[in-house]
Predict the 3D structure of the following.
Amino acid sequence: MSDNANIHAVIDAEYKYGFVTDIESDRAPKGLNEDTVRFISAKKNEPAWMLAWRLQAFATWQRMKTPTWARVQFPPIDYQDAYYYAAPKQKIAPQSLDEVDPELLKTYEKLGIPIREQELLAGVAPKKIAVDAVFDSVSVATTYKKELEAKGIIFCSFGEAVQKHPDLVKKYLGSVVPVADNYFAALNSAVFTDGSFVFVPKGVRCPMELSTYFRINAENTGQFERTLIIADDQSYVSYLEGCTAPKRDDNQLHAAVVELVAHDDAEIKYSTVQNWYPGDKDGKGGIYNFVTKRGECRGARSKISWTQVETGSAITWKYPSCVLKGDHSVGEFYSVAIANNCQQADTGTKMIHLGNHTRSTIISKGISAGRAQNTYRGLVKFARTARHARNRTQCDSMLIGNQCGAHTVPYIESRQPSASVEHEATTAKISEEQLFYCRQRGLNAEEAMTLIVNGFCREVLQQLPMEFAVEAQKLVGISLEGSVG
Amino acid sequence: MLEITNLHASIDGKSILQGYNLSLPAGQVHAIMGPNGSGKSTLSYVLAGRDGYDITEGDVQLNGETLLPLAPEERAARGLFLGMQYPVEIPGVSNMVFLKTALNAQRRAKGMNELDAVEFLQNIKTAAQQLGLSDDMLKRSVNTGFSGGEKKRNEMLQMLMLQPTCAVLDETDSGLDVDALKVIANAINAMRAPTRSFLIITHYQRLLDYVKPDVVHIQAHGKIVATGGPELAHKLEAEGYKAFGIEQAA
């Protein structure tokens, strides 16, 4: 049957964010050694304690080895053949958006990122989203800061937080993801350049979505951002992260660390739409996305919810996790991972139940097309202290065509007999029948594929904030372009 | 309206349709009856443009335009509808979203504006009521977990909404109880119009008791072997395919 021929014809999508911004950048010398770490710290005007922390992390990293347990393959990374710091050249630090290089503003405009604060149009207030825009190694702008400050909310670049809120940074940095947690976390701790910092004070409900938009522009440059979000007692914040990069033939490394802390009765909703350049259809180029994301439900009845839509990157190695310490705390992980062409995705979550009556939910939707390999890897762990804890896991895989692979690797460890765990896994193939059915009703092959895949991902996509759900649905379509014909 | 001329089609090198001729004028209802394996479903798929079939000879025209080079969605936009024998499940896509997407895709193909949301909602509710489908069914995923009868009624809902000019209904009556059969027959009868034609593929006389065909064709071995009025269906019911000289494989 020619269903495969048909399906093969929708997987050759053009990555539309692949342009390069022509902007002069200020870079660290190539290579990685203690001097690189010192260079970065000096560039950022950091206090001594921060440099000491970095150097200790660097020493730790040097003693560690690249992890090999994930189901991904790539040649050894030459850490000396990359740049660790690149910043767009600006004569003086911009005081307001008007002083930001217009080339940069144009870049974000082209990407559709609302970097300018929305004006009141004809008396209608548009829905506000505060944005922190990170370009290569530095944050170039953060919007709505004043409005947020009025409520006591801190939303700024990580660099600024180190300068202005050192006590908070010292208290929380590395408290969820310790320096020695893993190889890439240690590397990040040594050379991280910028990222976002959020602190929501006690009892405050953040009035708008907070969003950070990461863009790698410079060539041969790794991006190592650090995000730290703290929700104090009874507070709430919803945060979204987006990312893109130009098309380059070389692989670029992105090794971020995200730490979340939720205190008593606090809730953090963290959504990611990851759209790094995935490489071309033969697997040339693309981002290596080796990211450590972890949230700690430190307080009682706290809640952390991860929602991720992973469509980009040549390799994704990422396990947003929850440590459920507080009694009655809740962890959630909703994931859509799409791997097309030669992409490799090894992603999932860890739910570590420590407190009593802690609950976690995992819903993972993996879609593989082309020659891609997509693995769900998850750990659900119940410590002896976690009485009456519960987990529900649902892992669904969808295969498009017959050259791709889907793998599910769930680990469950329980030291507590009262714990309950449910695990469900399914694998489906997008059928020629479904495509034909949709096309007979008038949809073209790509519309049909997008509709079917979006249906498959619905439970996850509906977790995204409204304004991003629509974007994500479109992205699902774009990511699968060329996978049917 | 629909003109099938000397159509030859094969799948995986196996010849299924072998010189098929059929002429279905606008406003008429034709029934096709034939034993299992005579190529009835193949005919419907070939008309709709499903992949995997090789057309080796012949032509199919709808309103004077040849369909063969067109993609399934292009044929749909020209007014061809296929009611499927086994409607497909699409989990996570609500019936409503599916129909709206389909309807708007067809409208775009015809250079029309997308349908107004309120108007769409009114139309679909009216159509659902006519078929005895609850509002809840409209919100459920396309055909997912539907009973056999619900799936067939859902096909009719799509037909009512898409308003095709030529509907090919492949065993829409199979597996239905008598009440469901009447509902479906009523939907078809309500849609009969001078500009619309129906090709009803069925194994049984009983649907034809409710939807009176203008012409009945008997199909065997990939072509039509007899054509007549409704009496042909009665003869078949009474005497079996032997009466038409058709030997069925055991």
About this structure: Chain B has a mean pLDDT of 93.
